[in-house]
Write a structure and sequence with these properties.
The complex is a heterodimer of chains A (about 525) and B (about 190). Chain A has about 525 residues and is an alpha+beta fold. Chain A is about 35% helix and about 25% strand. Chain A contains 18 helices and 25 strands. Classes of the chains: A alpha+beta (about 525), B mainly beta (about 190).
């Protein structure tokens, strides 16, 4: 049972100086945190599972500790082993990244009990926000509107008739959501009363498997809402600072695939109301360190608090780009007890516009199925306004055990149009061979008029994909097909044919099929062609 | 050298011959010149149209061409994955002797049983059908979890399940046969 004791913060908080930070994560976010540590002159400790022995985060960190077998339950979710790794390496700070143990209050408490500084909120704040119904009550108490729904959870013993009565009070379509849920898991839509029983059963079963808690609650499903969220930083001395909002309405099956800041539809006055609401929710939870308050914005410009994420978000770079801050560095400084010294006028005035594409190891041409495997070649884009937060490189294997995110491509521009053009340029520069990625999908999406005009809502992408009915994203210009055919033939013609029976590597000169020359000579001729 | 090539559902006849530092390439009767230079594991290809007035012998110096980034992965038996400016384009170089795609065969038989395979390695979380079940086209048969996501694998056509080869909880490799469906007669 999560304790709801007040957070240990206030003017008396001491300033500690961290000496070494263990990163309880993997992939791009571990690389991101290691970079911030290095920028601050802080030694870093990576942890790794069996299949991550040669992963980039392990080789980048100053120290590395093996923590078990590849399935997350045997390694990255093992609180005991991560605490042991911190002790053994002499780390005094722990950064959880996102996912895995980042929103697990038992982990934050275990760090505290072991004398380690958890770089994130208190276990109490994590517990408060981890329960969606508690978070809703806190928001209501703070005077922040929430999506109409049920205030109390329906435990596993509550019958379907009672839930059905609540649903008809709220009105259809209604969402059945797991109290412990997140990331679109344990969530089902009932469009009509007849769908409710199936939706409750499916949400409960998924919630029980994913979160070990089958309690659910109901929320009215808004028509065509946009997802708007507010990044917050809060120090141990009572200061809470909001940033310019992010918009994350482009989602596939409730998973964000693209984010931007600022939102193209949020006015200065709406921004003020949104950020004030976010601060009110954070204060009511005695929140510290970095967090994000998520809202839905309806077509009439009304907003509703959805939930608070008690961690660094995947999409934090877009905020960093328009605010000119390093949020991970601030997380570390705030965990050390340092006061927030940023000015609200800076964090609430966007400098330019930033977009982020989540590059996943999945095949958009085959219904976005996962595409783990060996990366044969990788060329990442660069140049003005481009940032690639990647956890992989050429020669790496993308394992099957974890999230398919391999990189986050971020583009900054003076305005949204320039950011879009830079992103499209960077997507063209980006090359990955060996595994399939969502890059072709993003090239297609960014060329759509709906994207240019920012005409989207949280179900927009799913609707658009449904209309396409599996049509390929790689609709290749026929002139490129000809180039491909020509290239294959020329390379074939210039390739010295391998003759297996000749140990002296005698090859035939492809340009003179009758001639037989020594391998090095044919090679030399070829090199001559590569002027 | 002459090649028969299939790409994008279209067959082309391509003649390739060296000419100084370039290659003269004739695609279905249209002549172009190509300059190919290796860069690490990939190629830079500059393609120029040939000016009919000056002919193929005109020097390349000063003539503009289109610049492409190319990478080629051989999949064996004439099958290639060619990447042009980041677009993956499958190219089959047909066997010059019989003009058939090399190594093809074993493709799905339109009348035989349909085999549903796992497209990626993962773990079977749900088996939704049993032998004897009648299924509709695109009906979900098996749910395979990989990379934290559940993927529903569906029936390619309407028919009857004649075999289920996996159990819930079992790990599967890519291309593991999960379910065999006997399609309904057309």
């Amino acid at each position: 049972m999560p304790r709801l004791a007040p957070a240990t913060c206030g003017p008396g908080a001491r300033i500690t100086t961290l000496r070494k930070v263990l990163i309880a994560n993997r992939g791009e976010i571990a690389v991101r945190v290691i970079r911030a540590c290095r920028d601050m002159g802080l030694p870093s400790v990576a942890v790794f599972s069996d299949c991550d022995r040669t992963s980039r985060h392990v080789r980048m960190a100053d120290e590395a500790v093996a923590i078990g077998a590849s399935p997350p339950g045997d390694s990255y979710l093992r609180i005991d082993r991560i605490i042991d790794a911190a002790r053994a390496s002499g780390a005094d700070g722990v950064h959880p990244g996102y996912g895995f143990l980042a929103e697990n209050e038992a982990f934050a408490a275990a760090c505290r009990d072991s004398g380690l500084t958890f770089i994130g909120p208190t276990p109490e704040a994590i517990a408060r926000m981890g329960s969606k119904t508690t978070a809703r009550r806190l928001a209501v108490a703070a005077g922040v509107p929430v999506v109409p729904g049920t205030d109390d959870p329906f435990g596993p013993d509550v019958g379907e008739e009672a839930i059905a009565r609540a649903a008809s009070r709220i009105g259809y379509p209604v969402l059945v959501k797991a109290v412990a849920g997140g990331g679109g898991k344990g969530m089902r839509i009932a469009s009509r009363p007849e769908d409710l029983t199936g939706a409750i059963r499916a949400a409960r079963s998924e919630a029980a498997t994913s979160f070990g808690d089958s309690a659910v609650y109901l929320e009215r499903r808004l028509a065509r809402p946009r997802h708007i969220e507010v990044q917050l930083l809060a120090d141990l001395h009572g200061a809470v600072l909001p940033f310019v909002e992010r918009e994350c309405s482009i989602q596939r099956r409730h998973q964000k695939v693209m984010e931007e800041s600022p939102s193209p539809v949020v006015s200065a006055s709406l921004r003020q109301r949104l950020t004030e609401a976010a601060v009110a929710v954070a204060r009511s939870a005695a929140y510290t360190n970095a967090g994000t308050a998520e809202f839905l914005l309806d077509e009439d410009g009304r907003f509703y608090f959805l939930e608070m994420n008690t961690r660094l978000q995947v999409e934090h770079p877009v905020t960093e780009m328009v605010a000119g801050v390093d949020l991970v560095r601030w997380q570390i400084r705030l965990a050390q007890g340092e006061p927030l010294t940023l000015s609200p006028s800076d964090t609430l005035t966007p400098s330019g516009h930033a977009l982020e594409c989540r590059v996943y190891a999945e095949d958009p041409a085959a219904g976005f199925i996962p595409s783990p495997g060996h990366i044969l070649a990788l060329r990442t884009p660069g140049g003005p306004g481009i940032r690639d937060d990647s956890g992989v490189e050429a020669g790496a294997d993308v394992p099957v055990f974890y999230d398919p995110l391999v990189s986050k491509l971020v583009a900054w521009g003076e305005d949204r149009l320039q950011a879009t053009m830079r992103m499209r340029r960077a997507l063209d520069e980006y090359e990955v061979r060996g595994i399939r990625t969502s890059l072709p999908f993003f090239k297609w999406l960014l060329a759509r008029p709906e994207f240019a005009e920012a005409r989207f809502h949280t179900a927009f992408l799913d609707e658009l994909l449904q209309q396409r009915a599996g049509e390929s994203f790689g609709a290749v210009d026929p002139s490129l097909e000809e180039v491909a055919a020509v290239a294959a033939c020329v390379v074939e013609a210039s390739r010295p044919a391998q003759v297996a029976a000749e140990p002296s590597r005698t090859v035939r000169d492809a340009r003179r099929p009758d001639s037989v020359v020594r391998g090095w000579k044919a090679r030399a001729r070829l090199e001559g062609l590569r002027a | 050298m002459r090649f028969e090539v299939e790409t994008g559902g279209r067959r082309r006849t391509i003649d390739v011959q060296p000419s100084g530092a370039d290659w003269i390439v004739v695609v279905d009767g249209q002549a172009i010149s190509a300059n190919l230079a290796q860069v690490g594991s990939q190629w830079s290809l500059v393609v120029r149209r040939i000016d009919p007035d000056r002919g193929v012998t005109a020097p390349a110096l000063g003539r503009p061409g289109r610049s492409h980034e190319v990478a080629i992965e051989s999949r064996g038996r004439g099958e290639h994955a060619v990447y042009v400016d980041g677009h993956e384009i499958p190219v089959s170089i047909l066997d010059p002797r019989n003009r058939r795609v090399r190594g093809r065969g074993g493709s799905t038989d339109a009348t035989g049983p349909s085999v549903v395979v796992s497209p990626m390695p993962g773990r079977v979380v749900k088996v939704l059908v049993a032998p004897g079940d009648v299924v509709t086209a695109r009906q979900s048969l098996v749910v395979v979890e990989a990379m934290k996501m559940e993927n529903e694998l569906r029936a390619p056509r309407a028919g009857t399940v004649i075999e289920v080869r996996v159990r819930e909880g079992a790990p599967v490799e890519a291309n593991t046969v999960l379910v065999v469906v006997e399609p309904d007669p057309e």
